[in-house]
Amino acid sequence: MIDWDFAVQTARRLIRPGPYLSVDDTRTVVETLRVSAGIAEAHVRDHTLLDATGPESPVLIVDRAGWVEANADGFSKVVQPLVDKVEEQRRTLVGMAGNVGARVTGAEAGALLAFLSHKVLGQFDPFGGPSDARDRPGRLLLVAPNIVAAEQEMEVPPADFRLWVCLHEETHRVQFTAVPWLREHLLSEIGAFVEATDVDPEHLRATVAEGIRRFTEVVRGGSGGSLLDLFTSPDQREVIDRVTAVMSLLEGHADVVMDGVGPSVVPSVATIRTRFDKRRKGRSPADRVLRRLLGLDAKMRQYSDGAAFVNAVVEQVGMAGFNAVWTSPEQLPSAKEIEDPQAWLRRVHG
């Protein structure tokens, strides 16, 4: 269904080079990022009060192509249940696309990965890595050229910015290390999404036709929603709401930790935060359309919504009381509770 090798090849052809660095400068960037990750992890553990003494996940310093390869690997594992379901349906049909179709979808996936490879500073990937490494909670990716490009564009101290980025990403690594059931919970939600997916050809044709109409609305500036909105059913959107709540929690928690630890260890943190938020908003019209179609604007809201939830809970019951969210999947906030922290507090703390 998707030729992931061709996706990587396509992305490699589309990726733009990052900032020029000499060999010595490149070594320095890699080394400072590794050191910053280690420093950040210690601060994150102290601030969150989370017991992250389980098996450690690796820290990988990658370029844009390396990020693409890592995510193609992770995506291929995550979407495999859906691919299997579609393939099972496809075998009963005549004239459906074979290898050519797989390369077409691979090219589309590669174009998407290439676009995203220029945006991501760091990422915790809970699903990537060797298939025999299930005892390790994923891997942390730091995209060196994007971090360097951002610090140069914003004119902020490199050492401060690299540590600041690592504070956010290391929080995710601590989350998945301290909460071993979290990865399997997300995988079960993916299974629920696949179960709710209708792969009937007639349904898919109707969905694509409606998607094209609404895609045009988005490009023209209308309220058509993201591509995810265009191609999901009500049952799937229920799953997406649950996953969005979890991701809002994870991202908001990481932002709160970043801003909580930052002032004590990052001297220029106020300048970095101001310029970084301004940079997020300063997008070209084409970039804004793409971000909207891909649902990246919704991801930005996850940071603010999740941070508001975490701050409200910590203010009332402290960090130890907030950590009740990590005790079981049932204690995770719903989408409505993310917007109404008092509802979660009443349900969990009485």
In short:
The chain is mainly α and 350 residues long. It contains 16 helices and 3 strands.
Describe this protein's structure.
The protein is mainly α. It has one domain (4-197, 233-349). 71% of the residues lie in helices and 4% in strands. The protein is globular and about 55 Å long. Mean pLDDT is 82; it is low at 93-97.
Question: Any key phrases for this structure?
Answer:
single chain; 350 residues; mainly alpha; three-stranded mixed beta sheet; 16 helices; 3 strands; 71% helix; globular
How is the topology of this model organized?
Blueprint: H1 4-14, H2 23-48, E1 59-62, H3 64-78, H4 80-90, H5 99-117, E2 122-125, E3 139-143, H6 144-154, H7 158-178, H8 181-195, H9 201-219, H10 227-230, H11 234-265, H12 269-281, H13 285-293, H14 296-322, H15 335-339, H16 341-349
Parallel strand pairs: 1-3
Antiparallel strand pairs: 2-3
